[in-house]
Each structure stands twice: as C-alpha cells, then as structure tokens.
Design goal:
The complex is a heterodimer. By secondary structure, chain A is an alpha/beta fold. Chain A contains 29 helices and 37 strands. In chain A, a hairpin with a 2-residue loop joins strand 3 and strand 4. Chain B is an alpha/beta fold. A six-stranded mixed sheet of chain B has the order 26-27-28-25-24-29, with helices on both faces. In chain B, strands 5-2-1-9-21 form a five-stranded parallel sheet. In chain B, strands 11-18-12-13-14 form a five-stranded parallel sheet. In chain B, helix 1 packs parallel to helix 9. Chain B starts with a strand and ends with a strand. The relative contact order of chain B is 0.13. Classes of the chains: A alpha/beta, B alpha/beta. Chains A and B meet through strand 33, strand 34 and helix 26 of A and helix 9, strand 24 and strand 26 of B.
Chain lengths: ~900, ~450
C-alpha cells in the first residue's frame, strides 16, 4: 500500500504503534526518512484522526539511542555469534534443567507474526508454556472475564457502538488521555447527539470528565459493588430482559443472589462505593431505562486483585438486560497496547496454547501438536508474569528471553524484578533501544527493528487486523523479531518448524491454524486470510475477524444471534462477591496510590521520550494530590515529595489537583531509571494479583507521602546524555537537540564546578555566575552552547531558576556576542533594540551605537551630543573618539 | 567701574574649569591673571597616557589654547612662578621680582608625585614621574636609549604609563606594593583579570613588591650588557654618571632597567601657601565656600584639603570649581560637599567601574559573574540585603544604575541574581524610584550624578 507522491517521496499506509485503538497512519517517506505522518481517512479505527503521540511519530524514528549491534556480555558480537550463543545456552540449560527452566517474556507491541513464532518455539518445540507477555499487566483480567462469560476471549462490539449508544459508561478509563482518538469519536458523537449520556466512573476527576453528564467519584477499587448493585437494581426495577436471560444465559439466579447479598439496595451500594445515593441512583436509573448502553472498561477494572470478577460484574449487567450483540450495546474492554489483541489471538499468554485454544482440552493440544508437527508440545499452563519473575528470582527459571518490553519498569515490585534478572543465569533482551532499565540487566542484547522498519500485522481493540508496514531500512544491524526468533529456533535444531522467509508466510500459517479443524467451534477464525499471496498480504486492508474461509458475511458484532462460545452456547452469568482491594491502608501507609498514563507519553518513554514536544505537556514525573492532603502534609505545588510504600520509594514533583479525592494520590506509569532518579512507580507495588488472571493490582497501593526539604534546585542542559547524577532528584527531558535535566538535592555541594566535573567535561569557553545561593554556568564550543547549568538554594528570590522552555530553545541557537552570552546566563531574553554598543563615554555610559543614532538623527557637534546625551561633558577623555565618530559621518 | 583683579595660581584642569564657570556666569566681572608653572596652555591631564602611547599628540589634548586666553582677555604667565603671597597687602611676588596685587586670589597649585619612601638613590638619572607634558618629553628622550622600563605603582596612573611605554615598544615591568592591581578600586579577582590581560600584552608584574634601592651598577645579563657595551664604546672615557641601571626589590629580586617611572601617588602641593602663612595640614585647608584661612584667598583642586579629604579625581574638582565661581561672582551661596564617588576607568582599552565596597568581608555576600571569552567580570556586594558595592570589569554598562542603587540603600538582594545582568534584566517596578532629599537644589546646582573619572589629575 505504497503510493508514490513524487520520484523521491512516497506514502505508506501503516498502523500506529501506541495504544489499542490501532489507528491507520499515512507515513510520508523520502530518502529512507519518515518526514511526516497523517491519519488514514480510510482506516475504520480513526477515520483520519491522530492523537498528539501519533502525530509526533516522525520525531521518534531517529537512530539516537538505538541498539544497532548484537552484544554478548557488553561486547559487540556478530549475529552468527549471538544467535549461536543464545541457542546453545538455551539448549544446555534445557538439557540440564528441563524445558520449564527457560522462559519467554513478550510484549503487546511486537507484531502478530513475531508473537506466533515465539509462541510456537516455546510451546511446540521447547515444550514449555513459560511464555507470557506484558499484556498480562493490562488485559489478562478482561481475557479471563470474557472466557468465563462468553467461552472465549471475545470483544463483542466495535468502535461504532460508542457512537451509536445512548448511554456510555466509561469505567476505570481516562479515555481522553489513554485512547485519545476513541475519545475524539465519542466527543463528536456527543456533540451530534447531545441527548446521548456519558457517565465517567473513576475515583479521579480526569480530563475524560469534561464531556460527562455524570461523574461518579467512587472509592478506589469499589467498582465491583457498583455493578453488583446495578444488577440488583435492574432486578428490583423490572429492567431485566427475561427472554434473553432465559434463552441465552445460564447462572442468572446465583448471580443475582450473590449481588443481593451486599448490594441489595442503592443505599448499600452507595455506601460501599463511597458515593451519594442520588448520583448512583441516577446512573442505575439511566442504565435501566436505556436500551443502548456501552460499558467501556479498561485498566481501572483490569488491574485489580479482583479484576476478573469486576469484568464479569459488568458483563452480568449487560447480559441480564440483553444489552449485548446489538448496535450501540455491549460491554467493551479496550486494550492498552497496539497488539495486545494479536498476542491473545496467537495465544502468547502462559495460560493459552494457540489460536484461542488453551490447555483445558487435550483435543486442542493434539490439534496444535499435529498442525505444528511439534516434537515436544507443552501440555500445561506456564508461569504468568508475576510468577515467572518470581521463578527467575527463585532460580527455577535459569534463562529468560525478554522481547520488546521493559519489565524492570513495568512489573509490580519492580526492584524485585531487577534483582531477579541480575541473579538470573542467562538474560537475553531483544529491543530496539540500547539503554533501558531492562537492557541494563542483559547478558545478550539483540538489536530488533522498530516501528517504521517492522513488517506484519496488529489487531486493535475492535478485532480489526491491520498491516503495519516497514518503510525504513532496518537501523544498523538490527533484524526483525520474527527473523531473530526463527534463527534461534533453527540454531537450536528446529529447522523444520521455522523455515519462514517473510512475515506473510507466518501470517498464512497463523491464519491456517485458526481455521484448522475449527468448523465453527472457535470464534477466532481467520482462515479466510490463510491463502493470501505475498502481494495480497502486502496490500491487505484493515479486516475485522472473524474472517472465515468461504464465508461471505462475517459479522461485525459478535453474539447478535445470542449464541455464545460456551459448550452450552449460553453466556455464563457469574455469582460475584465483590471484594475490596487486598492491600489496605494502615497508619504507616495511610494514602492510596492510583496509577495511569498521561496524554503525551507511552509506556516507558523509550519512543515518546524522543519527541521533545511530547514533553511540553508534562515534563517531569509527579504525584497528584488533593488540596486537603497538600495541607495535611505541608506540601505546595511543585514541591519535591517522596512517595513510599512497603516495597520502595519514589521522588517526584507534587501537583495539587482539583480532581483528586482526599486520601488518594495518582502517579503516571511512564518514568523510569533512564528518565528520572526514582520515579519507577511499579517499584512501589507489591506483587498482589488477581487469583484467576494473574494481573497485578496496579491501581491501588497504600503509600505514605513526605515533603523533601531540598537544599537546592537546578536545571542542566547538555548536548550529551548523562547517567546517574549525584543528587536526590533528577529528571531527563529530551530536547530537539540535547537533554534537559531538572535537578534537586538535599545537601548543597561544596563546590559546583567540581560537582559538575564529576559528571561531565566542562569546557574553558564559559560564562559563570557564583553567589552564596546561586551558581550558573554556560559553556560554549564555536559559539554553540554545549552546557547550561543553573542551581539555586535561594528560597526568597522570585527568579531563582529561569524558564526551562526558554533556556531549552536557546540551547539550539548560536550565541556569539557577549550580550547574548549574558542573556543566556541571565536566563531570559532582553530587548536589544536600544543597545548602547561599546561604551565611549564612561562617565555617562554613552555607547557608540547610541552616539551613532544621535548623529544620524542630526547631532553634528560634540556640543550638541553633550547636550543630548551628556557624552564627553565630564572628564572629556572620550572627546577624540566622539569627534572621530562625527567625522566618519561627514 | 574698574574690574576687580582675580589672580589664579596654577593652570591645570581645575583652573581651566574655574575659568569656564566664571565666564559662564559673568564674563566682565574680573580682570583675570593666571600663573602656570608649565610652559603650555591648559590641557587635559587625564589624556597624558595616550600621548605617551603615541596615539594622539600633545596638541590634541589642549582644552584651552593660548589663543583662547587672549580671546577672553585672560593674562597667562607661563614662565614666572609666584614665590610668595602677602595676604595682608593682597600682593604676590614672582620669581622675576615682579609684584602683582589682587582683589581675589585662587590657589590651584595641584599636587606632587610621591617618592618611594624607603627606596635609596631616588635621585638617579632615569627616575621620572608621570604628571605632565614635560614628564612625557623626558620619558620620550629616554625611550630611544633603553630597551626596558619599569613603572613603580600598579594604580591607575602607573598602569597607564606602563601601557604607554609598552606601546612605545619597550619591555615594561610594573612594581606594585599591593597584592593586586588597582587595589584601591578593584577586588583581587578583577585585579587578576587586569593583570592577565596586561601580561598578554607584554607587561610583567611584581606584586607585593617594595623597592629596596635604585642603582647604577648593572647586573650583567646578555641583553643589558650588550646595550651597555655599545653605549660604553661611544663614550669610553666618562660613562654617564649616576644613571639608573637596576632596581633591587626588598626580596632581593633585581630588575635591570634604564627608566623608572614613579606613579605611586600624589600629595597636595601646598608649599607656597605654607610659606605664605595660610593654614595647611596635608593640603591647603578650605571651607565649604573654598575659602582658605585668609580673606579673599581661595584654594581649588588637588592642593586643597576639605575636612579630612584630599582630592585626586576629577568630579569633586568640578564641584569645587562651580562653588568657587558662585562665590566669586556672587551668583549663589552654594556650598561644597564631598559626594560619594563611583570610579570609572579605562586602562589600555579595558573599561572598569567601581563603586562603594569592593572587597568581600564576613558581613557581606557577593554575586560574581564572569565570562571567559569576553573577559567580562562583574561583582555586586550586599550587606544586610542592601547593595553596597559594585565592581565591573570589561563591560561597565549599568555602572551608573548600580551607583544609584547603592545610594538608595534599599533591600534588593531578592532581585539577585537578575541584578548582576543589569537594569534591562530587572523588573523596574520592583525598585522604588530614587527621590533623594533636597532634589531641587541638586538639580539646579550640580550634575545629577557625581562621577569621579579616570586618572588622577
């Protein structure tokens, strides 16, 4: 799908690599460079829209920081060496300790084809199901809830339902920031049909609340009560769809019985949720009276110690009222990652086998075994993420291969994960970036291609498979993940299963497996795509599954006929006994920490961190707190604060937010050791997880808060990236050129120049300011700023530190004149239109430029100049120079 | 009605300014006679160093030519010094024996260079001062005969002389008692910058140095001995007697040099006043009307002592001249007072500014800004949050503003560090406008800023 724009420029249709919305992107490419991006008008997900992150994609494809060469134990190696080493190492460990002593940890950001070969290698050829993915951290509760209710991991609706619905519940989702294009579609729909009601259910008042008719700021983690309460309310208010319940569901009575136990009345529910009865009653009333209801839920539901139950509590309500399988009516789980769905389809989770088959049915195992001609098929579930890293820590897993993800940042109890990797016998990491918190733990580093180079498919939250097309050459010596994985597989002796020469071949096999002995048993069937030619695969337009071979009318919505994928064909309603979060507050940790994304960053910032404009919105890690808590803890806006839990501590900036309830805090998930001294929020979380899905409870962590009394604050801008700065707080902000570091310390260094010199080389061409409470330094090379440093321990001065944005801009400017250098050190611009120039008359500070202006305006004698400017009228020493200026003009 | 006789003894810059002030007020009031010791008309003494450097000619620094005196009917005696004043009879006697009577007499006899007190053999040929055009003539005569000159004194005058001599192509060494250059105006850091700058232009320095003695006996070094041999071959019989050939410092260092320019300071020239019975201390004592102890005798300029003050900078002299002109012309009963001074200097093209305190102390806090490339150095000193001093080196913009702020004595340390970058970087509203007491009087009778400027007179 490449269109030539000019002889040098072409436009390639591809898919955005960020969130689960899966927007189509037109990439304009010239001379192996991505020069611009725009939204694809023809893609069903975005219809031409792009969010701010997507719009900045072309700013993230430079090679800075890329891993370009394989490394073994920190030394550059050839691909042959690296592949053989990994293969041999794995083989030896497997030979000695068995297949379960090795593991793969994958990512919702690799492509379906990468996922497929990784899953096949591990489950079919190595013979262990120890393959899990970071989707465990965001999606697995929804997967489990879907499987329990529908018999398979199926998302019933599509994005259009969000526009067609009359009541939209946004639960545990800051859609505005986490899924901006879906949010834009909702905003547009609401604008077109103002009668459409939107309810946000979130402890925080987020940007998403801007369009809400009702915001229910419930108690953190109490969502389960809200939905069991809703089920009771529906039953009490004749709002059930009796015929749907009778014909298409099972387990209703038990579900209602369970719901009535704790939340039999609105009053009880309201109390458990910390809401007022009227507001909650309003939601219940709307839900019961509205036919078309969509409940869009995300991490606020999934990342919970009872996330699966919460998912089922939501689904119960839709089943009980028949609000499913119809336009504008569905429970709708929205995914966080661009290809979490693709990974789920492939079966890349430890509790899945392949192609929506799991280990519960021996027939499935046989089916896959025969399809793969697998020499050693795994027969039981493997270890899920949290348990997997626990096993690494315990030494049961001796080799782990991490592909395209950063668990040292993103896993709960992240310091424990780091420790696990540090003590692991073999850690292989495939990544496109060289320096991440995880690559720092690797024995072997394998350079993978990045978005823009990779070629394959992804599936978004509405079951649409889209091509991600490579339009740049692989950077340096990097290779595609599928190439690396198949090469290792072959080197391990599994030639037969891994003779793929293109992603199209892999996709065809994946599609064929989905249809293999399917006969309508498995909803995930894309056999219609199994016979694509290379050219057809290359030209593939976005296509929604199911896509069954020979089937002309593949459904857009699932369950329209009331048929589900359970053995009975009925949807299961589950008796849900909601539970509060496991980890509760205590006197030592009295506050609840919630986490989430911010608008302009993606995950651990390895890519979005490259686009300086994406840091204009929010540039430093922060904790949001209510004004009440701020007062209690003596904190003001932008203070440096410590957030500590039983597991760890973070040091971030304070943000006092209206939308934050007292007792609740919020921190973004993005910052990590590459970007800040101590802001890895996951290091605070204990490994508490849902017993069914294994998904960690990342939205609820008891913490304590403390203001840090900083002795100084500073900002440093350098053209080189620095590592570990010796101060309590640092935060890296990439700029168009160079990096800005925001700094703060608890003790004042004795001598600033030597403090700096311990970190970097300071040039001799410099301008410097030194006082008891301020130090400033600007270094230059050929008039180009190389280093700017401002530190202040001043608590009184209103201008202790200059405006960082202005400084950052100056960093790219030529700074030639003494006045420009002075302005740089002053940290602010100065109007130079009335510059005096070199001082001629010292007594009255009259400069050459001022005198020239006066002469050109008519002054033609020293006397006139003296009258006008006073120059030369005191000691007279400058009169010869003034006369010279006068004669020059004549 | 016949004009009153006004006699001015001394024809330096103070006299020139007084004449201007009188003519401006009442050109017909006096018949004026001026006695000058130098055979020149009135010139700008501050400009001696560019003349020495060869940048400009002596004619170019003349402020009042002989023709100007004639045009204004002022009688100028340049070759007949006054040797005695008879205050009782209002007459004075010249060296030639001529007698003049006066109605009003102004002593503007200037100052004398100080000789190094502890040094021996200060009377050798080749030891010169640097105070007037005649000194420059004498120095220039030496310049052609020697390769190396020494300047004694690292104050402004000494540095200007050193720079002038360097531009004449000589090797130049400066001997300075202080720990750093211009130690009356600059802090050590600025002094060091100035030293480095001048060193890069070929001037060498001995700081913390005292002269033990001047000597005629050269220490043989290849350079100087060959110079000496060639000199000796010309006049073998009688080598020039008592000519300076080396300087020994108190630490034993020996400098072979053919010229020593003494510039370690000045003292008021009050000899004539003293022998004539006027009250003198270090200088001629004057009151705030510039009157001496005797009626109708006034004194002006560097020869005066007002209270405890003696003078070496130009701005207070301008004030004195204005006050004295008012007194003589009866235009105004204005009074002289000593105003705080900011020092503005230009040494070999480098602008310097100093006002108020310039040294750090335990009670002060300072802000320093330094640019390695442009050589700009700035220091502000605060005491109890109040700006009490400023030293600017290299770029002196805002010097007057700092001077104003120092006078205002407001607590403005919170404006630091913006303050050091100058007025344009500071929010002007944060600083209350300056309304000095007695503003009207100052506006009518004096320039709004009092600045002492470059060069001792």
């Amino acid at each position: 799908m490449t269109t030539a724009i000019s002889p040098e420029t072409c436009e390639v249709k591809t898919t955005c690599p960020y969130c689960g919305v899966g927007c189509g992107v037109n990439a304009r490419v010239s001379d192996n460079r991505l020069i611009a991006v725009s939204g694809d008008k023809h893609h069903p997900a975005n219809l031409g829209r792009l969010c701010v992150k997507g719009s900045a994609l072309h700013e993230t494809t430079d090679l800075q920081g890329r891993l370009l060469q394989p490394q073994i134990k920190g030394q550059p190696a050839s691909w042959e060496q690296a592949i053989n080493k990994v293969a041999q190492w794995f083989k030896e460990i497997i030979a000695e300790h068995g297949p379960d002593s090795v593991a793969l940890y994958l990512s919702g950001q690799i492509l379906t084809e990468d996922y497929y070969v990784a899953n096949k290698l591990m489950k079919g050829f190595i013979g262990s199901a120890n393959v899990d993915t970071n989707s465990r951290l965001c999606m697995s509760s929804a997967v489990a809830a879907h499987k329990r209710a529908f018999g398979a991991d199926l998302v019933p609706g599509c994005y259009e339902d969000l526009e067609l619905t009359d009541l939209l519940l946004l639960v545990g989702s800051n859609t505005a920031w986490a899924h901006p294009v879906v949010y834009q579609r909702i905003v547009a729909a609401k604008k077109a049909r103002p009668e459409m009601k939107i309810v946000v259910i979130d402890p925080r008042q987020t940007a998403t609340c801007d369009i809400a008719d009702l915001h229910l700021s419930l108690k953190p983690g109490s969502d389960g009560y809200l939905f069991t309460g809703l089920l009771s309310y529906l039953a009490d208010n004749s709002a059930l769809d009796a015929s749907f319940i009778n014909n298409h569901t099972e387990g209703f009575d038990n579900a209602l019985l369970a719901a009535n136990q704790l939340t039999g009345s609105v009053a009880e529910s309201a109390q458990l949720c910390g809401l007022n009865k009227t507001d909650l009653g309003q939601l219940y009333d709307w839900f019961s009276r509205t036919e078309k209801v969509v409940t869009l839920f995300s991490q606020g539901i999934n990342q919970s110690s009872s996330g699966v139950d919460k998912g089922n509590a939501i689904i119960n309500c839709h089943l009980a009222s028949g609000k499913i399988g119809k336009p504008g009516a569905a429970p709708f789980s929205i995914t966080g990652q661009p290809n979490a769905m693709g990974g789920r389809e492939v079966g890349g989770l430890a509790n899945q086998l392949a192609a929506h088959m799991d280990f519960s049915d021996p027939a499935n195992i046989e089916l896959v075994e025969s399809f793969w001609e697998a020499p050693q098929i795994a027969r039981k579930e493997g270890l899920k993420a949290v348990d997997m890293f626990q096993a690494v820590h315990d030494g049961h897993i001796k080799a782990i291969w991490i592909i395209g993800t950063n668990p040292v940042v993103s896993m709960p109890d992240a310091d424990f994960v780091r420790e696990a990797l540090q003590r692991c016998e073999l850690v292989v990491v495939s990544d496109c970036m060289e320096k991440t918190d995880t690559t720092a733990c690797a024995d072997v580093l394998l350079p993978a291609t990045g978005w823009a180079e990779k070629d394959g498919t992804v599936t978004n939250s509405e079951r649409v498979i889209s091509r991600q097309r490579g339009f740049l050459k692989p950077a340096g010596n990097s290779r595609h993940d599928w190439q690396i994985i198949t090469a290792v597989a072959r080197a391990m002796g599994f030639e037969a299963g891994f003779r793929f020469s293109s992603p199209g071949e892999i996709f065809a096999e994946h599609a064929a497996l989905s249809g293999f002995h399917n006969n309508g048993k498995r909803c995930f069937d894309i056999s219609g795509l199994s016979a694509l030619s290379e050219r057809e695969y290359d030209q593939l337009k976005p296509v929604r599954w199911p896509c069954v071979k020979g089937e002309k009318h593949n459904p857009v919505r699932l369950f329209s006929d009331g048929e589900f994928n359970t053995p009975s064909g009925r949807a299961r309603m589950l008796p849900i006994m909601p539970a509060a979060p496991l980890n509760q507050t205590s006197p030592a940790y009295p506050l609840i920490l919630n986490t989430g994304r911010i608008r302009d960053q993606w995950h651990t910032m390895t890519r979005t961190g490259k686009a300086s404009r994406l840091l204009n919105h929010i540039d430093q890690p922060f904790v949001e707190l209510s004004a009440d808590d701020a007062e209690t803890y003596g904190i003001i806006e932008n203070d440096l604060v410590e957030v500590a839990s039983t597991q760890g501590r973070c040091v971030v900036r304070s943000k006092i937010a209206k939308g934050q309830s007292a007792g609740s805090l919020f921190m973004p998930i993005h910052w990590n050791a590459q970007f800040a001294s101590q802001a890895r929020v996951d290091s605070l979380f204990a490994s508490i997880k849902d017993p069914i899905s294994g998904q960690p409870e990342a939205k609820h962590c008891p913490v304590t808060l403390r203001k840090l009394n900083t002795a100084w604050q500073g900002v440093l801008i350098s053209d080189k990236a620095l590592t570990e700065l010796p101060c309590e707080y640092w935060c890296k902000v990439p700029l168009e050129k160079g990096f800005r570091y925001e700094l703060a310390g608890l003790t004042l260094p004795q001598n600033w120049p030597s403090w700096l010199e311990s970190q970097l080389e300071i040039g001799t061409d410099r301008i410097e300011l030194n006082s008891s409470n301020n130090y400033r330094l600007a270094c230059f090379n050929a008039q180009q700023p190389q280093l700017l440093f401002f530190a202040s321990s001043d608590r009184v001065s209103t201008q202790a530190l200059p405006n960082s944005a202005w400084l950052s801009k100056q960093f790219t400017q030529i700074t030639g004149t003494a006045a420009q250098r002075m302005s740089l050190l002053a940290g602010k611009p100065v109007d130079s239109s009335d510059d005096a120039g070199a001082i001629i008359c010292s007594c009255f500070e009259v400069g050459e430029d001022t005198i020239r202006r006066a002469i050109s305006q008519g002054a033609n004698s020293t006397e006139q100049l003296a009258t006008q400017l006073k120059c030369g009228s005191n000691c007279g020493s400058c009169l010869p120079e003034i006369r010279a200026l006068l004669s020059w003009f004549r | 009605m016949p004009k009153a006789d006004l006699i001015i003894i001394g024809n330096g810059m103070a006299c020139g300014r007084l004449l201007d002030e009188i003519l401006k007020r009442d050109a017909d009031r006096f018949r004026i006679t001026v006695f000058g010791a130098e055979g020149y008309a009135n010139y700008n003494r501050i400009m001696l160093s560019p003349v020495l450097a060869g940048e400009i000619t002596a004619e170019q620094i003349v402020t009042h030519s002989e023709q100007w005196y004639r045009d204004n009917q002022i009688t100028l005696h340049s070759d007949d010094p006054v040797i005695e004043i008879d205050a009782e009879n209002r007459t004075l006697t010249c060296q030639s024996g001529r007698l003049f009577s006066y109605d009003a007499l102004v002593l503007a006899t200037g100052s004398e260079p100080i000789i190094p007190p502890a040094a021996r053999n200060c009377d050798l040929d080749g030891i010169l001062s640097f105070r007037n055009l005649a000194d420059i003539d004498r120095i220039m005569q030496k310049v052609s005969q020697i390769r190396h000159a020494t300047v004694v004194g690292g104050g402004l005058l000494g540095l200007e002389a050193a720079w002038g001599l360097r531009q004449q192509g000589l090797e130049v060494t400066v001997i300075h008692r202080g720990g750093w250059l211009l130690n009356r105006q600059l802090d050590p850091a600025a002094g060091e910058l100035l030293k480095q700058s001048l060193e890069s232009r070929g001037i060498r320095f001995h700081l913390n140095a005292e002269i033990h003695q001047f000597d005629t006996n050269p220490t043989i070094s290849s350079d100087e001995s060959s110079a000496l041999r060639s000199a000796g071959s010309k006049s073998k019989a009688s080598p020039p007697p008592k000519t300076l050939q080396k300087i020994t410092l108190s630490d034993g260092t020996v400098i072979n040099t053919g010229l020593a320019v003494i510039a370690i300071g000045i003292s008021p020239n009050h000899q004539l006043a003293k022998i004539s019975g006027l009250d003198c201390d270090r200088g001629i004592l004057v009151n705030d009307r510039m009157q001496s102890s005797h009626q109708n005798i006034y004194a002006l300029g560097e020869c005066t002592q007002f209270g405890n003050h003696t003078f070496g900078l130009v701005a207070p002299l301008w004030d004195q001249a204005a006050v004295l002109a008012d007194q003589l012309c009866l235009t105004n009963d204005s009074r002289f007072s000593v105003q705080p001074c900011a020092t503005k200097l230009k040494v070999s093209g480098i602008d310097l500014f100093s006002a108020g305190e310039f040294l750090d102390s335990p009670e002060t806090e300072s802000v320093v800004c330094q640019d390695s490339s442009s050589g700009v150095y700035r220091k502000l000193i605060f005491r109890n949050q109040v700006l009490t001093g400023a030293v600017l080196y290299g770029a002196v913009n805002d010097g007057n503003w700092y001077f104003e702020l120092i006078q205002q004595s407001q607590q403005i340390q919170h404006l630091s560090p913006d303050l050091i970058f100058g007025r344009r970087y500071c929010d002007a509203e944060l600083i209350t406008p300056f309304t000095p007491a007695g503003v009207e009087e100052i506006q009518t009778s004096a320039p709004e800023l009092r600045l002492a400027t470059g060069a001792t007179l």
